[in-house]
Specification:
Elements (H helix, E strand, L loop, with lengths): L11 H14 L4 E7 L3 H16 L3 E8 L7 H10 L4 E4 L3 H13 L6 E3 L7 H4 L8 E3 L8 H17 L3 E5 L5 E4 L16
Parallel strand pairs: 1-2, 1-3, 3-4, 4-5
Antiparallel strand pairs: 6-7
Helix pairs in contact: 1-2
Length: 196
Amino acid sequence: PWTYMFLSQPSCDLQGAMQAKFALDQGWKKVAVLYNTENSYSYSLYYAFEAYMKANGGEIVNVETFVSADTDYSTQLTKLINAGGFDVLFAPNYTAQLVTITNQARQLGWTGPMINGLDSAPPFNTMCEGTNADGVYFVSNIDLNDSRVQATVKAMTPEELKEMGASNVRVSEYCYVYATIPATTDKKAPSLGFIA
């Protein structure tokens, strides 16, 4: 029923397994985890990551959690960092949370690697303080620097949106597509944003 709805990313099960395999391939066998218990994306990535790690010789050494309303993760991060004994911090969360988690982890002294979800793709690196995003890894099903990917996004998506009636169509340097879709009512209503 949704003609213009697309998903072009791996499932959470696949992403979590890919992230765990990447960690093991780097020799990072001991993992500390910080995830949102109220978010199915966060939990699903953690569940798949944990299952792959356990099945392939990895170990989750410590887990801390938070809820969606939380905006400060320093208590959980302090517990993880002080407990030590891990090679990598796995934080499968949304971008706004990840920026804060990454900045706070670095401020608290964690200089090691972090593995996050797709939400650490650009422009995440520009949202973190200084070089805090250095050493943060994420799964991506495309290479945003590949000129073929950039050309495809720039060539196809704007025209499709225009055909749907969208205006002010533009593509950012990170291949994010923005557009204005006209209202379908004469009634006064709030503006909506659709973000994927």
